Amino acid sequence: MVTRVVPWVSGAVYGIVLLAGLYYALGGLGAADPLRLLGFVAAIAALFVVEALDRTGPRALLILVRLALFIVVVAFDESGLSRVLFVLVPFAAYLAFGRTVGLVLGGVCLALLVGGFAVRVPGWYRDANYVSDVLMFSMGLVLALAMAGVADRERRGAARIAELSAAAERNRLARDLHDSLGHHLTAISIQLAKADAFASRDPAVAGQALADARRSVGLALDDVRASVGTLRAEPVRLVDALAGLADVTLRVEGEERDLDQAAVTALHRAAQEAVTNARRHGRATLVTVTVTFGAEDTRLVVTDDGRGFAPDAPHSGFGLLGLRERAALLGGTSTVDSSPGTGTRVTVTVPRTAILHS
Fold first, then answer.
1. Span 100-114, pLDDT tens digits
2. What is the side-by-side strand order in the sheet with 333-338?
3. pLDDT tens sequence across 287-340
4. Judging by DSSP bridges, how do beta strands 249-253 and 287-293 pair with one another?
């Protein structure tokens, strides 16, 4: 699992320290030593390189490398402001190894600061500047650890939501298989029984029953393939996914931007279900899929010229519950407008940045 939940924090601190050090050296606030300034800038640059490697490198080693570079930066920094870098040590350790390690390292960093003052500055505790440095450093540690705690809880919450989403998807697949495949198997059983009963009395009726049974087998196989297909990796681009729908007219309004994968999945599968329902149940000859990319949300509309139905009727068999659940998980909405003889219009809208709801 990714540990850099808030990757901008370290870079922001490095940038602030760099600007403060340059201002102190070049603004005449201290003795200008070109070699020390060059070493200071080089060490800060090395820290940015470490942040870029943090996505793939070993966590413990990178934390140690950061600590070594912090020491180098402090040694070259004439202003002494770069001591704030050490608050990032417990911050990174908290995210990588947990709360206990982060708190322990926070205490170690504070002890090192106080110990350094005690060794280098006798009576430092009577100097308001040094006491202020210790207090500010302590506040920085508290804020860093608190931010790490929030980021860690957010990460755990995201993982939990992903688990709930996966469970919801498994339940949907189970419901689809039960409803559609169970229906087809029941129909096949009845048709085969009819063929057996009429085999000697009316061969034509028996033959038609066998033909109907074969057709139901084909529909059942299509349902199984569709359900298995939903378990495969989802396409990244929504328009590409919708273009794969067979025998539909696709219209795209607006420019597709990067969508959350959850939104792509929801809209793609909603379109699959709506198109399948239009063909199979609505006997539609024309199905149009329109996707509109707005500034705040993405809207999918599937319309057909089928025979329509009453959405509020029990056991409609159109998977309306699955559509609503899929949209609701993303904070979106799903509506179905239809009546007998007028066709059907299915609308699914999800926020541009989808947030899974448990």
1. 888 888 888 888 888
2. 249-253, 287-293, 297-304, 344-351, 333-338
3. 999 999 988 889 999 999 989 888 776 655 556 777 787 788 778 889 999 888
4. parallel
* Coil/strand/helix, residue 355: coil
27 compared with 239, residue with greater pLDDT: 239
* Residue 163, phi then psi, degrees to nearest 5: -65, -45
259 band by pLDDT with thresholds 50, 70 and 90: confident
Q: Which residue in the block uniquely carries the two structure tokens 């942040």?
A: 51
286: tokens are 């024309």
Question: In the predicted model, what is the mean pLDDT of residues 159-179?
Answer: 67
pLDDT of residue 66: 83
| Higher-pLDDT residue of 274, 260 | 274
In the block, which residue shows the tokens 């940045």? 353
> What's the confidence (pLDDT) of residue 341?
86
What number does CATH give the domain 235-358?
3.30.565.10
- CA 70/CA 55 separation, integer angstroms: 20
Q: Which helix (H) or strand (E) holds 126?
A: none
**Coil, helix or strand at residue 195:** helix
Q: DSSP state, 55? A: T
Which spans in 86-202 are helix H? 88-97, 99-120, 128-176, 182-198
Q: Which residues of the chain form CATH 3.30.565.10?
A: 235-358
Residues 337, 85: Cα–Cα separation, whole Å? 59
Distances (CA, A) of 88 to 28, 58, 112, 162, 341: 29, 17, 14, 29, 66
Name the residue among 91, 107, 87, 100 with its Cα closest to residue 4: 91
Map tokens 């540990």 to a residue: 3
* CA dist., res. 132 & res. 127, Å (int): 9
Residue 317 to residues 172, 313, 322: CA-CA distances in angstroms? 14, 10, 11
Neighbours of 315 (CB within 10 A): 6
Tokens of 280: 């199979």
